[in-house]
Known about the structure:
Blueprint: H1 7-22, H2 25-36, H3 40-44, E1 55-60, H4 64-75, E2 79-86, E3 98-101, H5 109-123, E4 130-136, H6 139-142, H7 152-165, H8 169-177, H9 186-191, E5 195-201, H10 224-233, H11 242-252, E6 270-276, H12 278-291, E7 295-298, E8 303-306, H13 307-323, E9 330-339, H14 350-361, E10 368-374, E11 386-390, H15 393-399, H16 404-409, H17 413-419, E12 423-424, E13 435-441
Parallel strand pairs: 1-2, 1-4, 2-3, 4-5, 5-6, 7-9, 8-9
Antiparallel strand pairs: 9-13, 10-11, 10-13, 11-12
Helix pairs in contact: 1-12, 2-4, 8-10, 10-11, 13-14, 14-17
Amino acid sequence: MMVDRGPLRSLLHSIAMSAIGSAKPAVCMAKALSSSGVSLQALRTGARSPQPGRIALLGMGKASAGMGAAIERQLGTDISDGLLSVPEGYQVPMRYVEVVTAGHPIPDQRSLDAGRRILQIADSATEDDVMIVLVSGGGSALAVLPADSLTLGDLLATTELLVRSGADIHEVNAVRKHLSQIKGGHLARHAFPARVVSFIMADVPFDVAESVASGPTAPDSSTFLTAQLVLEKYGLLPKLPSSVRKHLRKGIRGEIPETPKPNDAAFERVCSLVVASGKTAVHGALAEAEHHGIHVEVEASPIVGDAAHVGDWLANKARSIEASDGPRPSLFVGAGETTVRVTGHGQGGRNQEVCVAAARGIEGMRDVAVCALATDGIDGPTDAAGAIVDGESAQRIRAAGFDLESVLAGNNSYPALRASDDLIVIGPTGTNVSDLFFVLVG
């Protein structure tokens, strides 16, 4: 747990928590439902027979249960059935829809079971039915169904290679979509000719709907060839299971149908709405900072790239703000998602790696704090959301017996930041709208 080392760090922690709070499903869905006019009557407009069909809820992701609870409050008993798949700790009590837990970040048999059941409900839909699909980060692991020629083991081996390679989320998804019966718009194809209303909480840079949970209800712009080129880029083709290489070759030759594209009939009856993203959380941080009279600079572009490089960039931003004649205190805030090329065997997450690099860059500075954290509360395979570091963090890390360069080279940020008491541990937040990055100069 992060130790309170002064008012500046406490203030930054408060701003970060307000940012996460502004992106909670209950808050975002209430706004989306009121502004979009989604109601029972609106959902059933366009039914192709006088007899209304059923309304089912399908969902996968860390925020899907919270999103589903908001839908339940509005539609109540008009919901006939449904299934939402979430990680452990993200369950929300619901009356009319079943909520199950599955493996995350590594899919497991429960993920496979959830994927099969979701497709069964979609396949049973008629043209008078409405499928409400709730999509959020983590959904790629929580509901899976491999292509017919593949196994869950094939998916796991391929995904692990991609994640460790440093590929970005769009590249990872280009491959995953072409190994799946759900991702890349396949769920929408299974649900056709029913109406599909998809609510999306975006956790990816640029708020690209087709990349959230690998886009189960969105047209896919990538192809089998795209997927193979990604794997070639990172030198992964020879390391793949032979069944995956064979599947991709068949797809490139046209022996397997492509993922549905924008002109596919499946999307004629699909309506999608992004209800929250990293921008939502940034606006929450902005409001909280301005409440405290803090000058704020917002990064307009998504913050992406190698985690350690982003940490260096944030440290340079801190030095630039400190050297300026601008107002104090001053906050810089942005959202995005970094990548890590895993070369070591340490423990940590991308946001913690950002913070170790930032700690190195702001060493010795006074009245400066840098924070990087995951809005879902979980950064990598750890119990930390991220960290807040200051000008003394690097010294505390060294005093605990860690060398900063070795920590970064070995991807071992978690024990180093735990030893320096800089970790933020808040547990599952129930939301997931990308990572947040802050620099606060007093």
